[in-house]
Design goal:
The chain contains 1 helix and 8 strands; from the N terminus they run αββββββββ. With 158 residues, the chain is mainly beta.
């Protein structure tokens, strides 16, 4: 019975190790979405371990009513699905700055918290595609206080 238990533990450990997938050390690219006008973002991902990473995104917008930029930082947990497919979830926050146009001739800086959940695929070439959903809760006069952002990410891995 003791040998069977040890064999089962060894089998489970081997399966867990063989299913663990290393994520890329660095990935740089674009995150293309739309959350109340803050669409394109420069996106950088940095691996912190085999299954955790930090994502930093810098977005900007030249809209009809305001110009804005947004800096977002997220801590993400990455889980393998199948082969080169992963899913991930994360949490973080950021800062946004708005400059009003037309009737809104004022400026404002606001802070927000954000969550993130998505899927990604890493090709054999150093290319990663992702699709994610990022709800954000913040306070400013230019957008809604709650923003739901869906975006496509295209990143070069190195």
């Amino acid at each position: 019975m003791k040998k069977l238990f040890l064999v089962a533990i060894a089998f489970i450990s081997f399966t867990a190790v063989s299913n663990a997938q290393e994520i890329s050390n660095n990935a740089l690219g674009l995150r293309l979405g739309d959350s109340d006008g803050l669409g394109a973002e420069i996106s950088y991902q940095r691996a912190l371990s085999e299954s955790n990473r930090l994502e930093l995104d810098l977005g900007w917008r030249n809209g009809n009513n305001y110009d804005a930029f947004k800096l977002t930082g997220l801590y993400q947990w990455v889980f393998p699905l199948d082969g080169d497919f992963n899913w991930y979830a994360g949490a973080g926050g950021g800062i946004a700055s708005f400059d009003g146009k037309n009737q809104l001739n004022d400026s404002q800086t606001s802070f927000f918290i954000a969550g993130d959940i998505g899927i990604e695929y890493s090709f054999d070439i150093p290319l990663q595609l992702s699709l994610d959903f990022r709800p954000e809760i913040g306070n400013n006069d230019f957008t809604d206080n709650t923003v739901f952002d869906i975006a496509l990410g295209i990143r070069y891995q190195f």
